Amino acid sequence: SCSYQRFVNCYRCFYKLQPQLTRSIYDQFISQLQASIKEEIQEVKNEGNLEGLFSSLDKIVEEAKDREEPAWRPSGIPEQDVRSTVVPFLLKHRSHLRRALREKEEENSKVAESVLMGRDRIAELQQLIQARQQAWQ
């Protein structure tokens, strides 16, 4: 193979003396290198909990198969990305606050109406009391 030839070129003197041993050393080196790489990859997977992340990613992909609208993707402009995410939330929040304000205003107008009716009733009672007081005197 090509990599073996490069290895032989690096260790030419040793290869001329013992070619079988050179091949054996190369095979051991490659197998240890592959094992080390696999071990490193497994360690990265374990540290980053990649198995769980990959399974949750697969689940998201499965759920998104039935969607007709495309998934959100960043545009690369942070201001635009934040705006596209935050503005709909703020508009929804604003409509909720407007609805709450409208309800409170209606409630306040009903309370103000009942206060005015109460004041009118108090004024009528005061007039009635004065009339009875004058009639009694």
TrEMBL record:
Transmembrane segments: none annotated. Pfam families: Nnf1. It is found in: Chromosome, Centromere, Kinetochore; Nucleus. Its main location: nucleus. Keywords: Cell cycle, Cell division, Centromere, Chromosome, Kinetochore, Mitosis, Nucleus. InterPro entries: PMF1/Nnf1. One of its GO terms (cellular component) is nucleus. One of its GO terms (biological process) is chromosome segregation. PANTHER family: POLYAMINE-MODULATED FACTOR 1. This is PMF1 factor. It comes from Polioptila caerulea (Blue-grey gnatcatcher).
